[in-house]
Amino acid sequence: MGDRTNTNPGAAGRAVSADQPSSLRNVVLVGHSGSGKTTLVEALALAAGAVNRAGRVEDGSSLSDYDEIEHRQQRSVQLSLVPVEWGGIKINLLDTPGYADFVGELRAGLRAADAALFVVSAADGVDGSTRMVWEECAAVGMPRAIVVTHLESARAGFEEMTAVCRRAFGGDDPDAVLPLYLPLHGEESADGHAPVAGLIGLLSQRVYDYSASERVDRAPDDEHLPLIEEARNRLIEGIIAESEDETLMDRYLGGEEVDVKTLIEDLERAVARGSFHPVLAAAPPSEGSKQGIGTVELLELITGGFPTPLEREAPAVTTPQGAPRPALTCDPKGRLAAEVVKTASDPYVGRISLVRVFSGTLRPDETVHVSGHGLEDRGHEDHDVDEKIGALSAPFGKQQRVMPEAIAGDLACVAKLNRAETGDTLSAKNDPLLMEPWVMPDPLLPVAIEAHSKADEDKLSVGLSRLVAEDPTMRLEQNPDTHQVVLWCLGEAHMDVVLERLRSRYGVQVDAVLHKVSLRETFGEKAAARGRHVKQSGGHGQFAICEIEVEPLPEGSGIEFVDKVVGGAVPRQFIPSVEKGVRAQASRGVAAGYQLVDVRVTLLDGKAHSVDSSDAAFQTAGALALREAASSSRIHLLEPYAEVQVLVSDEYVGSVMSDLSGRRGRVVGTEQTPGGRTLVRAEVPEIEIGRYAVDLRSLSHGTGRFSRSYSRHEPMPPQLATKIREEAESSA
Q: Going by C-beta distance under 8 Å and a sequence separation of 6 or more, which residues neighbour residue 203?
């Protein structure tokens, strides 16, 4: 890698294309917010000749300023694709947000990519969230490399950061995480800081000097080689340990000089297999230089060491009905199978779908089958429709560069797929397929919203449906108990982006209101009452009297109605009327306006009038009787409890358990899991965990994850129940 000279004619002004999967590399950039991923993408585009020295494409726009929300928030909030070309290889760079609220965009990037580039800031180190994503990639065998950024203002030097990366990412084999180059520093400034001026290749033993306008490949100075001897020997041993030639280590230890070409070939194979993870350095270009430091070396690693789409196993496929189908192969002439990894709306073009083609070739103007299943719980209805493919293009800043086709292994933007949503499968209409979905995070932060005005209310449903189609990490709920529209998001930043998109893209202004949980009411003891509805002031009167007894039942029993009337005190035709009135009142509540559950109502006696009694009169009497019984009885407010499972690093277990107890939670068990983590199981009132997605992130420094599911309703503490009743009375 370090001993090769690579030139590139540049790709400005045209869509980068590939005519075979072996000429493609799909790389996702992973790292915490502020680690320098977007800056690195721009530097790679500059080195590849895709942008000018100022980081601008030919229309003057930047690669990173095409989204207004990102521009305002000064951070990435969505997955973006930047295709570049290097040495005849098309590289699809997938820049992902680093903030935890946008992990759904990261997961989509991982789905679309064949290798991952972990970007680590020397100023901040490796955070827990980055470690967790590394482990996810390791679990599926995705090849990975590491780039250390911010060396120009680092709290730690490159050697120290390499040690940090070996501890964080090396696991049981730290010698699988080693640097390929060491940075060379220029002259010290007055403040004692020596900027990075170039790199020295540990295998090639060549210096790559970036201090001039062009990168210069030259022989090392006399003092350089002794400085790299220890790191070079460790790297060679690490590569040989991963070699498929089992005799190579013995020959090396026996004193045989291993050819650099052989080492590079073994290195590239080990990187492509995902068994060796090189560490590289990147720094901004020095004044007057056309290339960022380390960008050429990184492009060489991507093209030489990262796998082609041919080496990746495609997701499993079935028919839309679930019947298994043969595995996909990355063949441009094979059956069509592609997946929508991102959906966005453009004010001029309309809906744009970013698609990864796994098999076959996608062409403009052909009709494909669109299949989406498995996300009904998030507001996505199952759908199987045929749609016509619009124009294919490759994004570049604000531009969309036309593509004639997208072959297996490539990514492309498809215009005007009106029904396709993120996660949908595109296939031939005569051979419909459904691709196994990727794992999407559960949105666990509820946000109740109301339309700001009548005009907004008319547009709200359309805007929400479009947002749901774009973002599968958001769940839309129409709560039948509280009658609230609830958006479930991944965090506060995700919520802000969702509401901003609703306003700016779809012209809908909404107000966030207090989220309510679904409370219930029940009787705490047996009670009896009479419902009397008598009105006889001229004309046709109303007459109905019923006597009932109410008793509590076990949880989950619902409302039972029992008829024990004897002697025809209540005519048979009016007994269903009493029941209807009782059930209607139960649905409205008897104390604080919440649904009454788990009681048996027994009709014991009553009176009727031969002329004035009616169905409506006995419905009213039944409702009055239930309210009267409640007024003389102890009524419990029931609150929903959630079964919560928290996965957290061992060092935060105590804090998490203490926090759950402070939320009136009951810890029911803990379980050790691999990787130094503990699973804490607890039962917690839902009213106490509305913001737990935000609070856990703060408590665990971003490393905690949790899930929640409804368990049951339980009586609320008296003091809290009294407060809620008072609030209900004051708002009535």
A: 1, 2, 3, 180, 232, 235, 236, 260, 263, 264, 267
Contact 147, 40 (CB under 8 A): yes
Q: How far apart are CA 671 and CA 373, in angstroms?
A: 34
Structure tokens at 727: 């609030």
Spatial separation of the C-alpha atoms in residues 285 and 347, rounded to whole Å? 36
Q: What is the rounded average pLDDT for all residues in the chain?
A: 89
Higher pLDDT, 29 or 174: 29
For 528-537, 547-556, 680-689, which range has the lowest pLDDT when averaged over its residues? 528-537
Decide if 181 contacts 293 (C-beta within 8 A): no
Count other C-beta atoms under 10 Å from residue 48's C-beta.
27
Cα separation, 682 vs 658, in Å, equals 12
Residues contacting 172, CB < 8 A, separation 6+: none
Residue 304 one-letter amino acid: G
Q: How confident is the model at residue 610 (pLDDT cuts 50, 70, 90)?
A: confident
DSSP 248: H
How much is the pTM? 0.87
CB 632 within 8 A of CB 539: no
Distance CA 623, CA 601 (A): 11
Q: Look at the block and give the residue holding tokens 């490159």.
A: 158
Cα gap 566→545, rounded to integer Å:
15
- What percent of the residues of the chain are helix, what percent strand, and what percent coil, each to the nearest 5? 30, 30, 40
Number of CB atoms found within 10 A of residue 60's CB: 10
Diameter of the chain measured on Cα atoms:
118
pLDDT digits (tens, 9 = 90+) for 302-338: 999 999 999 999 999 999 998 999 999 999 999 999 9
C-alpha to C-alpha distances, 259 to 46, 245, 268, nearest whole angstrom? 33, 13, 15
Residue 72 tokens, joined:
């305002």
Nearest to 4 by CA among 88, 87, 85: 87
Beta bridge partners of 351: 345
**In 3D, which of 258, 209, 210 has the Cα closest to residue 232?**
258
Q: Percentage of the chain with pLDDT > 90?
A: 65
Of 696 and 245, which is predicted with more confidence?
696
Whole-number Å distance between alpha carbons of 722 and 634:
12
Higher pLDDT, 345 or 719: 719
**Rounded Cα–Cα distance for residues 270 and 244 (Å):** 9
Greater pLDDT, 348 or 521: 521
Confidence of residue 629 (pLDDT cuts 50, 70, 90): very high
Distance CA 612, CA 149 (A): 86
143 close to 272: Cβ distance less than 8 angstroms: yes
